[in-house]
Amino acid sequence: MDVMTSKIIAYKKPLLITLMLLIFGIALYVRLDFLISVSHHVSHDTLNYDKMVRQLLEKGIYAYKDTSPNAQVTPGYPLFMAAVYSIVDYHKHDPFPYIRYIQLLISLVTLWLIYKVSRKVTGQAVSLIVLFICSVYPPFIWSNGAVLTETLATFFLLLYIYVQLHAFEKKTSSSALVAGAFMGLLVLTRSEFLILIVPVYAFHFFWKKERKLTLRLLLFTCIGTGMVLSPWVIRNVVSLHQVVIASTQVNPFQAGTYPDKNYDDGLVDRHGKTQMEVAKERLKIGFTEHTWQFTKWYTVGKLKYIYANMYFGSGHHPLYPVLPSPLGSMLHLVLVYFCPAALLALIRKWRQPVTLLTLILIVMTLTRLAFVPEYRYNYTAMPLIIMMDTVAGMAMLRWIWLKITQKNSNSSMKGATKNAEYSGE
Fold this sequence. Notes:
Blueprint: H1 2-37, E1 39-40, H2 44-59, H3 76-88, H4 95-121, H5 124-136, H6 138-142, H7 150-170, H8 173-189, H9 197-208, H10 211-240, H11 251-255, H12 275-289, H13 291-307, E2 316-317, H14 327-347, H15 354-368, H16 382-424
Antiparallel strand pairs: 1-2
């Protein structure tokens, strides 16, 4: 038995390596071909980042859309840009192509992390399917052309999830500390993820029922996060004279109070009011006087805006069809519309690592309903959706296959019994 097992392992390992090299080869080719074969658009947000980074390097002022220090955006991506600007000498060379090629490499490492996370929550075959889907899912290619936070944020999100699952598995304070550090880097790139720490450890407590262990791991995760965030917090105290853990930007929250993005609905008078004051007044009037409209907007309305379409990056010309049209759009819609069924299937047996993915997806989706909905918000959720859909889908197929084979087996047994009875007569 041991000899046979060894032979099977010896046969499977070269096959696994071959398949992974093939998948990563395809992933590298489509990403590289995309970057060199199209004209990349530069978004409004990218232009603001560019002005911000140049001001930081030339005047030492960290400010977004302003010339005075502020904390409108977290420093993760601007500092990444600043590092590239400095290395390539942005006065002589356009730094955007260099950023895009670095993001290509980051996206390949993210693919590896997706595979590693999949291996922690499911089997080898399912993980390979997840890896292949992610290697050709169009937004994961197009995003490399956008000088925006998506590629870097997704890398840190997958890195955090992988190490957090490792911390749950090994139960060591050091692994929880590292998970917290990666959470800190994630928050510095996209601040909305900070909310994940509490529900993640609440899940761990209800899963393992070990209060002391959960509290210890939570403590070290918070320490790790705090260590990474502390320079940013200290800077804000010194420069802005206020404690800012993430960012001070209010516009996405205020803009989210306009149903169907009708910014001229005249619901409240905005003159002389701050964005937060406008947002609070709109929510109060909206949910009391236009209850159905606002309830619909803050549920199915925003969900449709966030998930109904693929993320195209900053845009490019001509359109790069990663998959023959309309297969790319069909793949996205299948993944999104199958997700609720996958959620229900996985939650039925929730005491398992894959539930962490469903929890993060649910928490982040609910969080984003509070802000202006954009389909770029679905980007960081799609690796989780692809993993969940594939795990649940393959489980359903196995269940159907077992039912069919059992039925055929029972039919064969009944037939054999009848033949035996007939022969006996």
